[in-house]
Records
---
Amino acid sequence: MKKSGFADMPLHYGHVPAWLAERMARLGLAVVENIVLDYGKDEVLRRLSDPFWFQSLGSVMGMDWHSSGITTSVMGALKKAINPHSRELDIYICGGKGRHSKNTPQELIEIGSRTGLDGNYLVKCSKVSAKVDNTAIQDGFQLYTHNFILSDTGKWAVVQQGMSDASNTTRRYHWHSEQLTSFVDDPHTSIYGKNNGLILNMTDSAAAASRNGVMQIAAEPPERMLKEISKLVMPNHHDVRAKDVDLKRLGTVLWLSRFNDPARFSFAHGGKDGHPFPVPTKVYDETICTLQMAIHKAK
């Protein structure tokens, strides 16, 4: 299983004005239709699972390039625009922010009944991916939004976001099913964002022994474990040696992508808060018309 990456962003408050939300939906649909026509529906999932491409898409759609609001706004706009055309595009978007995220299982079951996909398996993938990012990776971020995107081929992607009260930032997690092998053994290919110090990452391959140990402990009779934890055996040498300490450390792997500078995409249509400039609605509408005309000609 490959988790495509993480993205850390400053926490932004406020809402998307109606005039921008409506345009975001139209532009998002046009972008997705173009990708489907040129590369196929599964390419949409791959790109949404790329944190740099996703951030760049949010910038093009008029959100502030570094804002945490890109996640909920972009996914909300795409869900609103794509789901009415799901039968044509063969792409479905479930979940959302807060209480809407809790609707994901029911939405997946309904999609499964319409497409013949195993809805129960998709629900399991949705719940496990959320559990891993919320529990197996203890980095101080608690999930508050979860979106599950899938195609009629059964491939899927997850875009979910957590919030840290300590650092006043959010972190976005991306998943992609294309190379699914394990949910708990090196599921990610990169971590992108500010280093907030050591974390407990039970999905790291170096934590395999710890995972096995936890499972072994869970299977032991409680009485035996209570006896064991009261024992303390110290080494007979005074100096602290390598074998006495777990020297493995956590690192950050940067995702190499041609979309590694989302800031430059913010100059396409500006940002709703005026950075780098206010959204020029005339230019925005011209972009939508250009893409829709290209789709019409392609069909």
---
Amino acid sequence: MDKDKMKIKIIKNGPYCVFGFVPLTEKIITPVDKHYEYRGGRKLPQKDTYSLCRCGKTKTPPFCDGYHERIDFDGEETASKLQYDTRADLLSGRKIDLMDDHRCAFLRFCHTEKGKTWDLIERSDKLEERKLAIKSAEECLAGRLTAVSKEGLKLEKDFKPAVEILQDPEKNVSSAIIVKGKIEIEGADGEKYEPRNTLALCRCGESDNKPFCDCSHVHTGFKE
């Protein structure tokens, strides 16, 4: 993989065009006891360049088949391009803090056997709760949550570049497109979004915060 060649270009009222042989996989959000895991799904073709559906109406999911032109899809991007550190709230905990920018994709990995991530940082003077708070923030692949040390160091692992198509059978819906590894994303207007360790893009076509997922796939019952 050559990360310098990796890029996602958002086409006006059209798909996400992915360049640079970015690995493409499917992941299944799977409930296990009182927590969740990402498990492997179907194998998807690997290509140097591919286009992912953004309108939610393709007949060849997750790939674009041009259907957005038939339905006159409105893909206007309304999300802020401000950097995460500017947008996120900083919530204070016992031993670690938590950054939260409120961009939720309803992945639910903030729900653990010992409580939600926000509750865990309040008990982060206990080693087990602190480790679980860091882990659950890392597994929030929407990039909403980031555990932070009291010295201001972000406590997160670096993801390798990848695109993941999420399925959520527990809710009987198809979930977001996850982009990992700080891949460059260029908007339809040519302006770039901040590269993030991980983030969630909308693929149901209904988000009010395009291009990012805002849980609309759950509310509308979106399914490929």
---
Amino acid sequence: MPPETEALLTSLGVRERRIEVMGVPLDPLTMDETLDVIDRAIAGRVPLKHVVVNVAKLISMRQNPRLASDVTGSDIINADGMGIVWGARILGLPLPERVAGVDLMERLLALCARRGYRPYILGARPEVLERAVANIRQRHPSIRFAGWRHGYFDPAEEPDVIDEIRESHADCLFVAISSPMKERITEQYRDRLGVPFIMGVGGSVDVLAGVTRRAPVLVQRCGMEWAFRLAQEPHRMWRRYLTTNSAFLGLLLREWARRRIQPNGMDMTP
């Protein structure tokens, strides 16, 4: 972590609040607190890399050491899914709320429009990205983009794509590419990109383009957004949710049991 990043996070008390949930470091920040840290980083040109963790990513990290390293190397790690928030609370760990990546991206785009920050979006299919940019401009007429580029490029083109972003002098970068590629790109090139704030946003661009529907707010708050998505794409998503949700539940139960037993092996259950 660059020294100026460490200094910023320490001055704001972020570092001392970090917790670990089932082996994954998380920052127990609210949405507003997260936005404040990012705003200060962009304004001060302090490099800051952000990532969110949901149930699927937490399980994937246990199976993919490279992904785990790329995620834990991030400067701010928010809990994206309600499953993570509830799991942490069951274990007695403080997570105030969910900070969903798509919600954070939308709040940051509004911040860019107000502050004059210039975002760059990398990822999604060309036609989806164009629709998303048009929708963002309609919602925020004053926003000025540093640029955008679709995510369907050959691996050999990757260095040129990174140089293109660097030369755009963007204030923030949203990487709308699937895991684990987006985590690898943001970690591997964070210094070369020269962008103050970098964030992986996955399928958020599809939401902004209107291609993917989000669950109603009440469904989101109940932690059932995964079920809403499953209903939209049952043939593609059922196996993923069955395996990851089952693995997460088993992991949570083991961690809960471990915390109920003292190191000397005596069960302290009342």
---
Amino acid sequence: MSPGTAGTAEISAKPLDGRVAVIIGASSGIGEATAELLASSGARVAVVARRADRLDDLVVRIEKTGGTALAVAADITDAAAAQAAADRVGAELGDADLVFNNAGVMLPAPIEQRHAGQWQHQIDLNVTGLMNVIGAFTPQLVQAAGSRGVADLINTSSIAAENLFPGFAVYSGTKAYVSHLSRHLRAELGPKNVRVCAILPGIVGTELQNHVTDQGARDWLAGSRESIEWLQPGDVAQTILFLAALPPRVNLQQVTIMPTGQTS
């Protein structure tokens, strides 16, 4: 092979060739877009969510474009289900070396309305579900990092973890947990070559807004959509690819990605 041919081969190689990526919350929005992008970039992807039909459709799309994907229907608020998902990924694709921990729900409302069920739902998914995934997949990440030299755990937080949005107290609290937890996990896992990053998106146009029941929050979101151009799921997916494709020595601890017109 001539030097010129070798250079062409290196340039054309897909940036995530050989990697095993797990996308949690892959049935829509950011997770769905990220799964398609990482698969097109060479990763074998496991797509995890509750809605099996959507996962099956996603796998078909990925495979039609030459990618490799595995659908794993699981409710990650159940620790046993999260562990079963991890076991299946390990058995069928090999140890995960990239986990995008992206499932979440946003249900804003004034605290005085005392929507305890909505509070608990957000805590169950945004905190407990997140921890179930971390508990299930960390052994694989450590193992993969030991053999391949690098692995990635990327947790989805939110700009709401840092800024103040009336009515979003519980949601913001769960996302502040994600951000601070990620910093601690980086201190633990970084020496084992597992990079940990929290991403903090501003407003992204996904199903998340459709779940909001409080009229005041719905009005605020509608006004925001009219005044600024929201991020799209693919924008965040590109950020995940960028993080995963960095040289193993480079770990961005936290990445904030905002619509240009969103000031806070």
